[in-house]
């Protein structure tokens, strides 16, 4: 089947599924493969569950004229997404970066949707499968699509740009994330900058944090850039008023009080503001959107549990995000500060050094109590309490009650699933 014909079938039933457990009537099922699964095996189940078409890439699973054989299912999904992206008139804003992508994406969507018909990446579906699925949610009347792009190795952002063909782009930052795949911090800078490279090559517009010297250097004299800054008068001026604990911002004569903790969320708000300004969204609408935005999904959530003030930031962690989280936690005007930190993953041969750096930082900042959980933290040299696994943490908290009215930061990589701590406190 030609991509044009597949697209015509998609327009007739514009809903995609890659999981037979979640199929809705008339979905088109793409039988993707992975290391531990083969979607072709579920062709019959997909049809029985109500799929209008099933896209397969193994001839033996052809069942009837509703099973469509292609050379490679994933490639077909990506080509369909690119075809649909060009079929529709929506402008694409893509963003990547080491930290803050999802929060920034949600903030951009919150402010832009005040004036425009938008779609945005759901959750963090930001890879070679998630980006195509996001593009395929674009409707004929969609005006702007906000597409998050994640990467853990070189050339990945470049590939995603070829699928999404963004009109605009923003990079949140360049931090110590996925160091194993990128081969170090210089690889991170090069990999994330593939979004810049695509936009510059195609003479597209770039949004930037003009207070980030890395971004300024990489963009050089490129003219189609629109930035924000706390100090540089050449760019749109936005000021951080405070972050105790929530970020408060001054832009023009307007004060915006967010529900986001930590000064590190200031630039995420700024990105949404500069993009809203570019698209002529009224500042009062921007204020309203940011004022009302509340983080969820274990990302910088504020919780009050059994008298404790808890910052739950357990969605992910890397050395950069862990450092700024600890530094921000240190500045909070709160008593009895308690840390529960989990291992940071995908650091390769830098894991030992980076975990030691974080352990040293907790000592330098002199927090009242520190629990370090995971095999990497267990190998550090520190006076903090080290626990090799979550089960060890569970046993520890059964025997050692947390002091009443404590302020607790919970942070670790996704694989640590430290949100489970809430059940123990």
TrEMBL record:
Pfam families linked to this entry: Mur_ligase (PF01225), Mur_ligase_C (PF02875), Mur_ligase_M (PF08245)
Pathway membership: Cell wall biogenesis; peptidoglycan biosynthesis
Domain Mur ligase central: 96-276
Broad EC category: ligase
Keyword check for Cell division: yes
This enzyme's EC code(s): 6.3.2.10
Positions annotated to bind ATP: 97-103
GO function term, MF aspect, one: ATP binding
InterPro entries recorded: Mur-like_cat_sf, Mur_ligase_C, Mur_ligase_C_dom_sf, Mur_ligase_cen, Mur_ligase_N, MurCDEF_CellWall_CoF430Synth, MurE/MurF_N, UDP-N-AcMur_synth
Major location (coarse): cytoplasm
Catalysis: reaction(s): D-alanyl-D-alanine + UDP-N-acetyl-alpha-D-muramoyl-L-alanyl-gamma-D-glutamyl-meso-2,6-diaminopimelate + ATP = UDP-N-acetyl-alpha-D-muramoyl-L-alanyl-gamma-D-glutamyl-meso-2,6-diaminopimeloyl-D-alanyl-D-alanine + ADP + phosphate + H(+)
Keyword hit for Cell membrane: no
Mur ligase N-terminal catalytic domain span: 16-84
Any single biological process term in GO: cell wall organization
Subcellular location: Cytoplasm
GO cellular component terms given for this protein: cytoplasm
Domain Mur ligase C-terminal: 299-414
The entry's keywords: ATP-binding, Cell cycle, Cell division, Cell shape, Cell wall biogenesis/degradation, Cytoplasm, Ligase, Nucleotide-binding, Peptidoglycan synthesis
Family: Belongs to the MurCDEF family. MurF subfamily.
Stored HAMAP family: MurF
Function noted in UniProt: Involved in cell wall formation. Catalyzes the final step in the synthesis of UDP-N-acetylmuramoyl-pentapeptide, the precursor of murein.
Protein name from the UniProt record: UDP-N-acetylmuramoyl-tripeptide--D-alanyl-D-alanine ligase
Organism in which the protein naturally occurs: Maribacter stanieri
Gene name of this polypeptide: murF
């Amino acid at each position: 089947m030609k991509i044009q014909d597949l697209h015509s079938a998609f327009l007739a039933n514009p809903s995609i599924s890659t999981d037979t457990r979640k199929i809705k009537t008339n979905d088109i099922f793409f039988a993707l493969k992975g290391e531990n699964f083969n979607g072709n095996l579920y062709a019959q189940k997909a049809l029985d569950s109500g799929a209008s078409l099933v896209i397969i890439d193994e001839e033996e699973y052809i069942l009837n004229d509703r099973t469509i054989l292609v050379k490679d299912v994933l490639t077909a999904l990506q080509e369909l997404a690119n075809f649909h992206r060009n079929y529709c008139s929506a402008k694409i804003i893509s963003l990547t970066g080491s930290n803050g992508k999802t929060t920034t994406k949600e903030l951009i969507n919150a402010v832009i949707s005040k004036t425009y018909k938008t779609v945005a990446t759901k959750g963090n579906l930001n890879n070679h499968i998630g980006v195509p699925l996001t593009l395929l949610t674009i409707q004929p009347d969609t005006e702007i699509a906000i597409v998050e792009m994640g990467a853990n190795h070189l050339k990945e952002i470049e590939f995603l740009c070829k699928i999404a063909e963004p009109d605009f782009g923003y990079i949140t930052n360049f931090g110590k994330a996925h160091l194993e795949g990128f081969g170090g911090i210089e690889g991170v800078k090069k990999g994330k900058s593939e979004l810049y490279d695509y936009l510059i090559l195609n003479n597209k517009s770039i949004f930037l944090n003009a207070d980030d010297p890395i971004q300024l250097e990489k963009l050089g004299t490129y003219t189609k850039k629109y930035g924000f800054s706390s100090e540089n008068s050449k760019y749109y001026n936005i000021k951080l008023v405070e972050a105790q604990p929530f970020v408060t911002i001054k832009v023009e004569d307007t004060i915006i009080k967010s529900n986001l903790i930590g000064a590190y969320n200031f630039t995420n708000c700024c990105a949404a503001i500069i993009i809203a300004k570019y698209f002529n969204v009224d500042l009062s609408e921007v204020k309203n959107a940011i004022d009302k935005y509340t983080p969820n999904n274990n990302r910088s959530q504020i919780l009050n549990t059994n008298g404790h003030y808890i910052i739950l930031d357990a969605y992910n962690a890397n050395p950069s995000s862990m450092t700024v989280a600890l530094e921000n936690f240190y500045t909070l005007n709160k008593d009895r500060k308690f840390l529960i930190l989990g291992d940071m993953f995908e650091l390769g041969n830098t894991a030992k050094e980076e975990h030691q750096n974080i352990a040293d930082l907790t000592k330098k900042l002199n927090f009242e109590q520190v629990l370090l959980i995971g095999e990497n933290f267990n190998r550090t040299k520190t006076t903090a309490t080290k626990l090799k696994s979550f089960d060890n943490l569970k046993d520890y908290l059964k025997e050692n009650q947390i002091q009443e009215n404590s302020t607790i930061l919970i942070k670790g990589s996704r694989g640590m699933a430290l949100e489970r701590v809430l059940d123990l406190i």
